[in-house]
Specification:
Elements (H helix, E strand, L loop, with lengths): L1 H5 L29 H15 L3 E8 L5 E4 L5 E2 L5 H13 L8 E4 L10 H5 L4 E4 H10 L3 H10 L3 H10 L11 H7 L13 H9 L3 H13 L4 E2 L1 H12 L6 H11 L18 E8 L9 E9 L5 E9 L5 H19 L1
Antiparallel strand pairs: 1-2, 1-9, 3-6, 4-5, 7-8, 8-9
């Protein structure tokens, strides 16, 4: 439950590769690096491209603490990005000895969640999986069933949100399980085991009239639940980087899992210079009727010289095809990398 969580110091995988996090700024990096006005002007054409959708950007030089934002206080749906604080919450429970990575959890039909979920796709009857396996599947694969089982085990969405607020990470709210959120956003009833697997889920979705699906998606985009502001998500990354949270062993374990993430290669990763590193968690809503309502990416760039930059890019409500929205995120990354040189 949350009270034990709030008593812990916690961080997440995104900072695992950031050796020496929390150390003083590097020599020559004491002064602000970024020109706020210039960067804002460079983000504006990207925002114009995704219009009438919205672009949100958060950027922090983790050496100096300088922050730049674009629509920084506007709320955007999280989608898979929510699995970042979930992974942190799980490791907090492990550190508090209320949970073990080798604990075995039972999965029954009532535990299955919507795609993407390789666990649900392969499920043929009650099965067991360790906490570590579920953690790997949730973060590495974006598996919604694994995420929901872990979310329940740490006290539910409200517990994770309350923990964040207790650690002074505000405006990053997790309110629903994936088995609630995903069907809600498409006008479906609560998820049921008979919908497991992509084909069955798509068939169920096809039974919802197109107008109702459209209405549900736009209601989802206006819903403050399961959202964050770019500044809220940036504060999350900042707190992690400053070693305010998990111990070194937990960071290493989560970092190893996060480095296996292959989703979203055409987003922030597409801007990655040679000899630099990126640890990130992308998020994407289901494309329906040619509309992909949410495309996100958050992460930390570590440049060859050791400088680190936390970057949050959220896009919501854009009519552009998924590939074009991903290119817009990559272009934000390119603006950041160029400005950091």
């Amino acid at each position: 439950m949350l009270r034990p969580l709030a008593a812990l110091l916690l961080t997440f995988a995104l900072v695992a590769p950031l050796a020496g996090c929390g150390e003083p700024p590097m020599l020559g990096q004491e002064d602000p690096l970024f020109d706020r006005q210039k960067l804002t002007a460079q983000f504006q054409p990207i925002a114009d491209r995704v219009a009438p959708g919205q672009l949100g950007v958060g950027l922090e030089d983790l050496g100096t603490g300088q922050i730049i934002s674009f629509n920084g206080e506007r709320r955007f749906p999280l989608q898979n990005v929510a699995k970042a604080p979930l992974g942190a919450a799980v490791m907090a429970e492990v550190e508090g000895k209320r949970l073990r990575l080798d604990d075995v959890l039972l999965i029954e039909d009532v535990d299955l969640s919507p795609p993407p979920s390789p666990l649900a796709d392969a499920w043929t009857g009650p099965s067991t999986h360790t906490v570590q396996e579920l953690l790997e599947r949730a973060i590495r694969d974006g598996d919604n069933t694994a995420a929901d089982i872990l979310m329940k085990r740490v006290g539910g969405p409200g517990a994770v949100t309350a923990w964040l607020q207790g650690r002074k990470v505000m405006n990053l709210d997790i309110d629903r399980y994936e088995r609630q959120l995903q069907p809600d956003s498409l006008g479906l009833a609560s998820f049921r085991a008979g919908w497991k697997g992509e084909a069955a889920y798509r068939a169920a979705l096809g039974q919802v009239p197109a107008a109702e699906r459209s209405r549900a998606v736009h209601a989802y985009l206006a819903d403050p639940r399961d959202t964050a502001t770019p500044l809220g998500a940036l504060r999350f990354l900042e707190a992690l980087n400053q070693a305010e949270l998990l111990n070194a062993d937990s960071r290493r374990l989560l970092g190893g899992i996060t480095r296996q993430v292959t989703a979203g290669p055409d987003r922030l990763r597409a801007a990655l210079p040679r000899d630099a590193q990126l640890v990130h968690v992308p998020g994407t809503a289901r494309t329906d009727q040619g509309f992909t309502p949410v495309v996100n990416d958050i992460g930390v760039y570590t440049l060859k010289d050791g400088r680190k930059f936390a970057v949050v890019v959220f896009i919501s409500g854009s009519p552009l095809p998924l590939a074009e929205q991903e290119k817009a995120i990559a272009d934000v990354g390119r603006v950041v990398i160029k400005a950091a040189k």
